[in-house]
Fold each of these.
Amino acid sequence: MNKTFQLWNPSLLLGLAIVGLFAAMAISPGLFSSQDPAGLRLEHRLSAPSAANWFGTDGVGVDVYSRVVYGARTTLATIVVVLGIAILVGVSIGSVSGYLGGWIDGLLMRVADVFLAFPPLILALATNAVLGRGLQQTMFAVAFLWWPAYARLVRSQILAVRKLEFVESARAIGANELRIVGRHVLPNVLDPVIVRASLDAGFVALTAASLSFLGLGAQPPTPEWGRMVAEGQKFLLDQWWVATFPGISLFVLVIGFNLIGESLSGRMQSGLHVSRAEETEGR
Amino acid sequence: MFCSRARGTRTPALCVIAIAVVLLSGSCAPETERSYLVILTEGIPPTLDPLAALDSRVDNPVINLYSALVQYIPGTTELSLDLAESYEVSDDGRRYLFTLRSDAVFHDGTPVRAVDVKYSIDRMLTLKTGVWAYLTPVSGAEILGGRHVAIDLYEPFHGLLGALTRFYVANSELVRANEFQGDLGQRWLQSHDAGSGPYRLVSFQPEQQFTVERFDDYHGGWGERHIERAVFRVIREEAARRIALRNGDADWIYLSSADTLEALAGEPGITVNRDPTLNQLYFAFNTRREPLRDTRVRRALALAYDYQGHVEHLMRGNAELPYGVLPARGECASSDQPPPRHDLVEAKRLIAEAGVRPGEVELTMAFEGTTGETPFFEIMRAGAAELGIRVTAVDIEWDAKVSNYSRPDSSTDMGTIWLFAPGPEAHHFLYSLAHSSQAGDGGNNFAWYQNPVMDRLLDQAAAATEEERRCSLYRQVEALWLEEMPFAVSVTMVGLSAQRDDLKGYSVALGHPLTQNLYPMWLE
Amino acid sequence: MMGRYVARRLFLMIPVLLGVSILAFYVSQLLPGDPARAAAGRLATPEQLEAVRERLGLDQPIPVQYGLYIGRLLQGDLGTSLSSKQEVAQELRIFFPATLELLFATMVLTVVLGITIGVRAATSRGGWVDRAFLGFSYLGVGMPVFFLALLLQLVFAGWLRVLPIAGRLSLETVPPPVLTGLYTFDALFAGQWATMMDAGRHLVLPALTLSIAGISEVGRITRSAMLNALEQDYVRTARAKGLSERAVWLRHALPNAMLPTTTVIGLQVAFLLGGTVLIENIFSWGGLGTYAWKGIFRLDIPVIMGITLVSTTAYLFVNLGVDLLYTKLDPRIRYE
């Protein structure tokens, strides 16, 4: 390979900068905004962006900028929880399935099939109808959608890795199976999982925001970008700022995650290329 | 055929561009004269069943499709005869004798007869739903001849004629023929018309639109200027409705926000309507739940709502504050009664007195976000937060709310309720909310309020034929209400809409808020 | 060989559908209170209640009830809507064609534009078309669908006034005679050009909104698959044989690039089924999405379960279709 992969290429840096900024907002929103994201001031409703309210105020007089800042917390928390659950469940089920094989593998994969058979948003809607509306329910509903993808990924990785030489040799020297999984198999499996998660993060944000836009996710007064766009819809013609700023924030965050995800997956693919090339040459 | 044979990579793209040009150019065709009216609403009526006309979304089509025995003169609270040619009241006030006019016919040509009135009354008394809430004193009906029918009451009821303006007579033969498993035609009437009104239903597409057309044999007769045909279409987004009106694609649009109304007020060719209504917004407090069981907590929450801010800022002056618990235009309403008060100091005192410590209580509140009620929740939430009470959102539609409130255990702690009274009689604003008979099973008493004293006062007042005595009884009801506060009475709605200048004759009777009564309208 | 493969795939679908139906049945059991009352409606008369109880077999043990439920499903009985009191299957028949038409238009846009742009970008690698597409694809993947819909409405219907803002037909247009329920097709079959044009114009904004993400995805995959294919031996051989560049791309590279593209297109269908819920609301489309949304706010569980079952089944068949397309596209794949 004549092209060497740049570790810190510009798109990765840009992505990290975007996500880092929003993460900072999520961790300490007080640093970015001194206003209460739930503080009603009816007499100041729908004021245009100004020095006092950078992004203007919404239909009940809350500062849109502070809602956007605090909204970052809602969105990022959703991403972390959803991917956390999905990875935890997916990796456990995928490892068990891939490692044990046999009828357990068959059963678990059929269960994953059932979940994969639902069109994504529809399953989230159905879950919402049963569990009720709210942020936690939405996180749960979206995590419900995502775990089978990780289970499949991990299973296929394990199937590939367990045949590799160093695993075989570990087994040959009589290492305990659990140790093999923990020491040798999982670390090799986690790389693709992390790449996949970085690619999924933006998509999770969009799905959760879509549910909130429909009125099913975060409930008022929790600041949430999708819900803010929905509330700002009727003001779009005159008070464009109510819907536009949260919409743009979501857009930028998703792009940030995509930049990171693609850089990472590009890196991994070129890495794979190298190893595959070595493999062929070695043969 | 440049689209069918791909000769190069450029061709499919060219094809798409060509289609786009053709589609876009379609809009440049000169506007043709429309011979019908286009009305844009926020939602489609859940049913066309006249019994459900308690709900203004249903009253809107039904007022055009059906006729009642008596009806308001458009734009007023004055009654005139409709299907009835004359009526008499018995000496004890418990029997109303109606003689039907001979020329009234249903849309299928069958004449309107006493049997249809009887069937409609029986249907209401069996199903005990919808407009029954306003007609609870009715005990039954008796056929006294082809065109003579009597409506009987348990007790004299001064509000009967006013309430009968929402009691629409359905074609008994037609409905009977379409009953399904003893449902008294509920299923069929959801999307069909069995009325004798000025317009008949031409088509009904669920969640999209319905079309009505002039009924030539309407007993009211047709003059020179009328609307031949009207399409009621759902466009959920207010901004989209506004664009459609401005582009000339609609003649009349419903508005839920005062901001849109104010923005449209200056535009040429457009008139905005601010119609006074009797619609009141209430916040129900579940009187069977802790800590709302304590009247002081309920009163404190009522004091925590910013009524003035709601009227002046949120609605930009397009709402009114009631007098005491009655709308300013209601019967027995007196300007001596103070409007609801926003007083956090007093509220905090009451909360402390009730022994509720800040941060201890969390209450659920049901509201309809899809019809723009979220700000009401926000104002209540912000007010309660000042008292150290956390209010959480339960955003559901009306049907779901009613079914939640059918049982005490599934009811939320608090909830919004709009009352669309059929007339100015004080009875309508108080009875259906605070009488114990209206709790559960689809009734409006979302507070589960039960007080024998209140029940007795309400029963006595409804039966009092003399106005002075009636109003003095309602004063007592009001005093008890404010002391017990099962519901906070917040604001009276002003109906907001916008229309093209050339639409004339639009007027709304106070008793039929948010409806488009097509009969008196015409396009110039 | 093919027939056996299809049969095997259909057989494998059974456990999945069974799982889905168990989930749906379980959810239907979660209805608060008396299911008979819930199914018959709050305002049901005692006779109605009894009839429903008998029809649903609610006095039977749970496994028997599940059996009855499956029996009803197989007969096309999806239950009765709590709010409208109509049969869910009947209502789905009304709402489904609208969504199908929207999905169809979206897929046509996605496939035609996605592949065309992808090929163009690949052939002018590094050129302005390629760069412009790269920028566009970021926009397409990152843009929230609901936000894009609002912007397009604002620009094309609000400011430029060249496209209708919402709905499926103009008010003056009478819906064509029902054949499929898809207005454009029905109008075409009936020979009503004006109606077809009108329906087409109403499709533009919602279909465009829904397809932006798909165009980006399909375009990117097509681009990289094309680039990959152009490096392969057979392309070199074709070039060496003296074929024109265009012929090399279209006859050799593109067919091979179609394989990954087909996968992505198949995946798009799943996301579109969910995406319609967002879009139909904004464009007052009156299809399955609106129906689902209303059902949720009315807590109408039979409606939601009906939609879930129907869209899941549809999705499974789409997947099967995509897999079958593979065999057509790639003769190397053999199914046993």
Amino acid sequence: MARVTTGITSSHIPALGAAMQTGTSNNDYWGPVFKGYEPIKEWLKQPGNMPDVVVLVYNDHASAFDMNIIPTFAIGCAESFKPADEGWGPRPVPDVIGHPDLAWHIAQSLILDDFDMTIMNQMDVDHGCTVPLSMMFGEPSEWPCKVIPFPVNVVTYPPPSGRRCFNLGDSIKAAVESFPEDLNVHVWGTGGMSHQLQGPRAGLINKEFDLKFIDDLINDPEHLSLKPHLEYLREAGSEGIELVMWLIMRGALGDKVRDLYTFYHIPASNTALGALILQPEETAGEPLNPRKVMSGHSLATA
Amino acid sequence: MTETKKERIDIHSYLAAFDDIPGTRVFTAQRARKGYHLNQFAMSLMKEENRKRFLADESAYLDEWDITPAAKQAVLDRNYNAMIDEGGNVYFLSKLFSTDGKSFQFAAGSMTGMTQEEYAQMMIDGGRSPEGVRSIKEGY
């Protein structure tokens, strides 16, 4: 039987990909960010931790979907997915290899569970999908696992509610657990944390909001899932709404989780960055040492 | 498992509340409709041949799109606030600043009235505080 063993969150900002591409990931600005990801990369290499398949929840940034088609929840069921050309040529990373059997199984199960999925049999994937892969796996000639891209609309309002996302995660968990093949499946929630990329209020960062969000995500996701869009917009910036995607990941892990690792950093370009490893409590491994890492301006006293 | 029916959200107050956030234009259906052609123009820059054609004669390329004179001028001026006023969305417009070889930080910074250096320094210093910019009416 397949099972969801792990939830991971990650930033997906394009600047991280650019830092790798330009060889600046060790400089003063980006060094602490990549250092904070190093324990996750190492953890993934340990026996039993590397997933067979990642259900990678992200938002498409006007790449696969233009203004003509705006699916709230979509699932990539293709054999493979090419990196999108977002205006500077495609990111020089391997094609993303899908798992059509599991993807179709999840799609069917979700529809039967009242989530009306959009099924994508051809789709390019943008930085939202490929940057987290680069952050976790570095620069291999091919990705070490299969990936089911799972785009969520958080661009055109209204995006799905936090509650809807949390419940969707629960249905993804049930879908995975009814797949007969023995697979280690991860669900990754990407994007965030607080940031705003537009208007005179651009550059907003809210450390208190972010740290409380992480705490609630681990310990009280039911309550967290009730947070209205307006609160994300006011407190976490217009693009902070991406955090609802983390609730899909969290919903897929069941009631209780153990936080194996938490990394929080300010700033990564325009954003506050959070990267976590969570596991369902009943099958959780040992926390990393150190278990919590803060860097950059997040260390400054208020 | 059946989901219990939650309390229905009133769409009018849901949308009206967005106007209370200072310096922020939420990409609502109204904006999406207004900016449809502008955003589709930006999407066209995902192809190398279109980027070349656009950069060779921006005005002529823009004339191929059903966009308002204000939107056209905003693109020519690279005025991202004005583009957003015309219904543009930053993720669509990213195709434009990427065509220019510019980053999200450049575009975001350009909308704040700060210089690039000031904006970058603000981010390094922890970003813009939410204090006082959460709500116009309530001033917190």
Amino acid sequence: MTPAPIHYLVVSALLFTTGVVGVLTRRNMLVILMAIELMLNGANLAFVAFSRMHHQLDGQVVSVFVMTVAAAEAAIGLAIVVQLFRQRGTVRVDETTLLRG
Amino acid sequence: MGLETLIALVVLLPLAGAALNGFFGQLHGKRLSGYLACAVMAASFACAASAVAGLSGLSPASRSVTSVLYTWMDASSLRVEMAFTLDPLSGVMILVVTGVGFLIHVYSLGYMAHDDGRVRYFSYLNLFVFFMLVLVLGASMPVMFLGWEGVGLCSYLLIGFWFEDAAKATAGKKAFLTNRVGDMFFALGMFSLFWATYQAGSGTLAFAGLKANKHLIEQATVGAVPLATFAALCLFIGATGKSAQIPLYVWLPDAMAGPTPVSALIHAATMVTAGVYMVARMSWLYQMAPGVMELVAWIGALTALFAAAIGLAATDIKKVLAYSTISQLGYMFLGVGVGGYVAGIFHLVTHAFFKGLLFLGAGSVIHGCHGNQDIRKMGGLKDKMPWTFWTFLVATWAIAGLPPFAGFVSKDEILYEAYNSPHGSLALWLAGVVAAVMTAFYMFRLFTLTFLGAPRMGKKDFDHVHESPAVMTVPLAVLAGLSAVGGALNLPGGIAHALHLPRVLSDWLAPVFPVEATAHASNEWALMGASVLVALAGTLGALHVYYRQKTVPVADNARLTVPVRMARDKFYVDEAYDILIVKPVRGLGRFLAGPIDKRVIDRVLAELPPAVAYWLSARVTSLQNGNVQAYAVVLFGGTVAILAYLTLYLR
Amino acid sequence: MLPIVLPVDTGDLTALGPLLAVLIAALGVLTVDMTFEREEARGRWSFIVGLVGAGLAAGCASLWQWEAPGRAILGGALYADAFSSFFDVLLATLLGLTLVVSWYCLDRVKVKPAEFTGLAVLSFSGMFLMVRAADMLTLFLAIELMSLPVYVLAGLSAGSKTGREAALKYFVLGSLASAILLYGMALVYGVTASLGYTDIAGYLATASRESGVENPLFLAGLALMLVGLGFKVAAAPFHMWTPDVYEGAPTPVTTLMASGVRAAAAAALLRFLAGAVLLTRGHWMMLVWALAALSMIAGNVGALAQTNVKRLLAYSGIAHAGYMLLGLFALPRGAGGFSMYVAVYALSVLGAFGALQWFDDRGRETVDIEDLAGAGKRHPWMASVMTVFLLSLAGIPPTAGFAAKWFVFAAAVQAGYVGLALLGVMTSLFGAYYYLRVVIAMWMDEPADISGADQSPTTGLVLGLLALAVLFIGCFPGWLWFLADLASSKLV
């Protein structure tokens, strides 16, 4: 059976949701970064699927841009994580709770 | 010079003074800053006087001149102009504010002569007068609100002028809270009035506009409550905050921490009268809400009683005057509450004279006694400070309500209205009378303990006591003169009629208050007699207790109950008056000042709401536990909520 | 030989002027960084380039014909009109001011001026892009261009624990919000088959005529986009990052976040909502209503118990996001109120943070209310300036904040949303308490150990002028209202 756009959409939704769950529940910062990437790629997939559905290129163009941005974001995110690790010696997100109230 | 220009000058001159002293004060030096401030006030008063004179040249029906500076904000249907309206009512107010203000400025030249911060002081003082003038001359509610907030801000600055931690911290907190609550209600009332007119398409907040549209307000409702009642009530609650009535009066006694001329200006003559002025200005609104009027009168009466009772037991000269102010403000509200608007304003004017004088005199005493404010440690100052003594006597005479000075005339007028007005009642009159007795009593108590009898301070201190310089005593004299003859402004109906003299203030204010003044009733003389009697009673009682018997208030920690004192003191037997009235009332005063005022009211009003607010805040901020995933959960939760809402809505 | 046809003409270039100026300035700063060897030279020159860029941007923006209709540039990716010019001028001013007031504080917080300037100008170029974005791709790119440098800036303070934590939190939550935004954009694209705002608006217009009910997928997409944009504006319930990040980041960075990021995000939000969504739809108003009310309450209540000034200003910013949203009602008039409020708020908060930077607590950053105690006695000028900004934030006349609130509340009332306006009035009067607490602490408490002696008069002068401007706007708000109205009313 040929995958119809709706299948892609379901997959993208699943990816996105998995990403969200990852951000909300995993305590390792690197895993959170990965989860964010998952979310972004879920959205990408949705863009591409819709683009195909409408027989346009717009969505795919967006997708390329997003990939670039995601890469930049990941780089910055990793830099921040590394910085934090150097200072605190941990990558667990529930141990960075100095700022509160 | 045109009337409009004069009006604008009255307001802008103090602003200019404040700016000049504020920005360039360091350049022209401390001495000049004081003179500049006084000169500005004199000029403002001169403009005010000319403006009022010009106003009187117009026919009574057209005595309302508006000076528009510019359009402040224009949000299509709601235009607010920076405009000032001079009419008989605001005319009276500006004369009082600039006139008494000028005298206080002159006095300050002497009082603050050794203070390093006097440039700042004079700048703030001028700024305060500016905001007060904006308040009373404002042609619309937002401009009045500008003045309302402005005087509040300036009063914080002036009260805290000498930073003394503990006293100022609590004073600050209380002043905040009560003013905030009051202002919120003021804004609410303002809002509702706008809403009522806006609904019908003629949204306005100008006083003239609101009055012209009062039929709209009359018909509008807020839920089940008539809008007039709602608005009047909200505005009144705002007034209780500014004018220190129950339940929002708690800030005033603590505000005595500032320099005494500040207390004279702000807490006697100007800011605290803003509430009374506002009720008078909106008299047509209050006429539509008789229930609220009754509330106003009752709160005024109860405050007058309550504060007077506390004044009976106070031992700090300024605190006594503070409670006295609260009490007299209560009289003013009693007056306007029963529809005696002229009476209320009249008392406002005379109160500015004698209370201003009392505060300035107290300042002179404190100045002469090198900072001592405890009346238990005074006494015998009569010969050492003659000017202060005599002027203080005049003021005390006036506030006690003894004829023929101004206080008697205005207070009597209020009591007359309380008894005879359709809104008044016997109960209100009685409350006023009892408060009058107490007023006479505690004022003469203050006077006696301070000036008469043998000195109670150490000999060395007593030798250093000196009279204040002329720059301080001349204003005292002027105010004393005004307190003495001020009654002529509005002679009681019967006397005016008999002598064929006009009732100046009543006639002048007639265009503003279309309400028919209570017609001359036959009981006028009887009531007048009653007023005189109670004033005499209080005065003599005080003189007896404190002069003849040489009683001195005991130290705070000595808790003496009434029976014990009765037993101990042998003179009681032949003065039934003492037993029946004086002692119990003083004990009541002590009780009210102690447990009730400090524990109940302070706790409930000044400490509970902040505690609740802080608790709420702590609850809200406890959500911020620092865990970024918790935040993410909230963010996502919000997202889900929005999605759910949209999906459900579609069903 | 194929002639190369660029879809750009001279008119477009003028319209793009401000954006180009800032972009070039950003590249200029990077170049400066590479050129100079010595730290101070780098810092000084990058600073100058940044200021020049800001000046040029402002200049270009003011050349725009305000009455002229807008024009689409680059095939509809950008839209230049009076609205973008208004915000260009605002953003340029904010950039210039941020650089000037932060200059002396950067050493104290151990941030290298060259790095700060470079990242700040880059972020601002993203902001300039945001205010003229006319399709979703550009919007996304602009948001990322704006945000990524700020994530870095937050953690730039050497050795600061709170800084790095703030950077992490901002990054995680920001990326989460961006991803949600992106997914929303995907859904919208999927339904409307277009990325541009006008096309989306066109879809909505036809859709309602045909089916009468909007596509649920579309609504979901718009909702997600609202979440993403609301995050940047710090509206509740997307506000949890604000207190922590504002507190943890070094104060110069917080200044940038509170003024620039907020202003750009608000502008983008308005452009999107007005241009694409046609805010007059009933259920959208309910949503905005709920967001506004929640923000006002959460912000004001949360601020009460704060003792840290930066945190206090953060919570207050959340409340201000609520007041801003009020202006979204009663379009098109309300849009003017919205823009004016954003401008006034951005200037006031920049002044407040700027003044905070001026005060120096024994060589460290001033952060707590106690640190400011008695400032009135030691530094009366700066304390007065700070007071003006705090009063403006509190909405007390005669400052600009009062006028802005007035217009916004009036707009809400005129649209019939009386309850919300009332809530706004009540909460802002109530909230004035925490601002006044700081004012009182400055003027009436015993002086803490504040020096402020290292500051050059320039910073003080600039802040003083800003304070005067705030007072001026408060007394004569008409011209700003006129400009904001002119700029925004054409959006719808």
Amino acid sequence: MSIEVRNVTKTFGPFAALRDVSLEVQTGELVALLGPSGSGKTTLLRIIAGLEVPNRGSVFFHGEDATDRRVQERRVGFVFQHYALFRHMTVFENVAFGLRVMRRSVRPAGAEIRQRVHRLLELVQLEWLAERYPTQLSGGQRQRVALARALAVEPKVLLLDEPFGALDAQVRQELRRWLRRLHNEIHVTGVLVTHDQEEALEVADRVVVMNAGRIEQMGTPEDVFHHPANEFVLNFLGHVNVFHGRAEGSKAIFGTLAVDFPDAPPTGSLELRGFVRPHDLELDRTPSADALLEGTIVRIHAAAPQVKIEVLSTAGESIHVESSQERYRAQGWSVGQRVYVRPREIRVFGNGQPARPATPRRTDVVGMSSET
Amino acid sequence: MASAPAEIAIPPAAARATAEPALVRRVLIGVALVFLGLFLLLPLATVFAQALERGVATYFAALTEPVAWAAIKLTLLTAAIVVPLNTVFGVAAAWAIAKFEFRGKSLLITLIDLPFAVSPVIAGLIYVLLFGMRGWFGPWLGAHDIQIIFAVPGIVLATLFVTCPLVARELIPLMQAQGREDEEAAVVLGARGWQTFWRVTLPNIKWGLLYGVILCNARAMGEFGAVSVVSGHIRGLTNTLTLHVEVLYNEYNFAGAFAVASLLALLSLVTLAARSLVEWKTQRVSAVERVTDEH
């Protein structure tokens, strides 16, 4: 079932949680709402579920207006961050709850409920825990029970609110892959809320980046990662180095580096910011025309798939560089060495005023890239 | 009763590190015991000793004489009306306060606390002023031949007023701590209002509710001040147990007064035991949750 959110605005007192947000989710798609806390992503999810009523705007399920439909009638599955399992019921009874509260005319018979619950517990690989109570389970197990419970009523839409937020990193990794596999299997339309960009990029078919009650960008994971629409998205999707520069003539000047910059203003100079991801930075022993600045290696963290090198520039900025293990070993870097930092790709944004990451606006995106 | 989870939680080394020297410990425990003995156990023992002073036969005679029996029945009747009403009110008020946002919420919380702040005698007087012969509704009630003051309805009303915060006060913090998520989960799964209440909310609060009901019952049966004002002390008709004790005592019938008092004391002991049991049960539940949450 497809979901459409049209021009939804929601305020809590003076705080605007959502400002005129519109979003479409296709049938069978898994969409991630990604953003920092307070960006409105959970509010949007709760409005889709019917747990919150929008001040303005509407929600459509499969083309039908569902804005005024009651929660009970929306047939959505909702998975809460803190599981919200009924602690006085066994795992079995938790999963069976949605079936047991159905109207008598549509409620399945006892034997069928048993069968369906066991099938669901099998699906989440927890059949052996059916008679346990939630307090006797680990966090990851509880979240899988919560998922089975949500799926029991055969929802047309599955909504997940930071489902792995309360779990430790390893369990999170595991559950993330498992969720992706599960989604491929049952193919229910899904919306997942997360503040973890890695999670969103890995699990979702499409990522919606939100900030301050607005949608900043929508697109496939590759799209938003490789072609961020603005500074906020760029900043939010992983670590990024920021360099300050100026536009002069048709060039953008960053330290000792000048790159082509066709959108220069007719008069005066424009302040610019250049963004480079750590893995797009190279280190050289000798200066070159493409080098951005000079610095000293202050820290090397090599106990990871990617070697992380921190360089302190002569101007006192801290720059993060990532390099593959092979390259790092071939180049033989050590702490204290003088290096020249050279970007392979630099994204330039400028709007004539200082960057305000809290309220980024999509004005004057004069971005371009310079391949070396 | 708190020692079981505490022993699990604190490793022996840590317990030793924070412990006081043995002498200090013994003196503190000694002081507490002497205090308890003087001010609690001794009076309690006196009640039973005095009650049985003239023998078991007198004791039971004092309890089974018609006037005493009427007082027992009146007390039980009052509790039987007041406790269910306050339970319903307490659950409704706590639910509204903990699960919804609305205007005047803090005013409601303050109002619920009002009976605690007001002296019981004043509480009784309020009803006399409202429903007494010369009160606001007095003439109308008189014309329709309805008697509230110096009758059973007045006693019930006064007791209701005095005990109304007990259940709500017990439930509000509990329900606030539990939040709305469980109910939201139930509603999303298709449960209607009553189903959510019976299947999710009530089981979540049952121990706190029971605790509140026990306290409410104890207070309803033991209330003296407010009831004394509205009762009129009509023997065999409007005397509750506490009032009956006073009457007997004022008549220098000490054996009878203490015999009836021993009934009330017994009630407190039963209440205490029930309370401890419920407390032990809730602590065990939350201890289990705490231990498993750390996994």
